[in-house]
Every structure is written in C-alpha cells, then in structure tokens.
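User: Can you predict the 3D structure for this chain?
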Amino acid sequence: MTQSQTAAAPASIPDAPVSDSTFSDAKTVEDFLQARFGLGLEDVLCDGCLMGRLDQRLGAGARLVLREQRVEREDDGGEFGAYAGVLILDGVWYNFACHIFVDAGGQCFVADIGTFDAVEWKLRMAV
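Assistant: Here is the predicted structure, written as structure tokens:
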C-alpha cells in the first residue's frame, strides 16, 4: 500500500487513551521510520496487517508476525479489523495491538493503537 492509497486519516499516534510507554515507543518508531525510510507507523501497520508483508524499503531486518486478527464487515462495505502481533525492526521487538478501518473504496487507516511496547532487543558491539 502506498502513501497515496492511505486515507487522509488521524495522526499515526492516536488520541485514544494509551499508556505512556505505548505512546513513547510508538512515537520513537514513528520518528525512526520517517527519518530512515519516509514511512509512518500507520503505513507499516496497515501494510503488515492487511497484506501480510511489509514495505520492501524496510529490508530484511523488518518483520511482522500476527498472533491474532478479527475482521468485521460493515454495512457500508467497509471493514474494521482488530490485529495483534509483533513488529520487528532492526532487532527490536514490539508487541502491538491496533484497530484498522478500511472503507468501501479501499482506503485504510489505523483507528487506534491500544498496545505498542518494546519487549526485546539485542545489543551488538564490534570488538
């Protein structure tokens, strides 16, 4: 999914009540993705959850593993999905849970991010 396919939507980091660590980790990843790849966290979550793969610009160090998903069709032809899993970026693992809305025209956006926490990372040092 390209930037042009993503609906003009709320900011990638929603106003919904989330824990400080969720907001902090999500904001850190958002800043990293924007600076390094020109992508937003919303783009990455939509691509990973809806298409099952991440943008190739993220390279081999990025993966998304879905643990659960539930999609409901709306009367207007849109879909609302609940997704949870692990996003891996450059060796850092993030647990996430989010809701994604896709309208009848195929435009999508992250409705909210309920969980987004770093849970594992590895430090590599050259000696």
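The beta strands are 62-73, 79-89, 92-102, 108-120. The first helix runs from residue 20 to 37.
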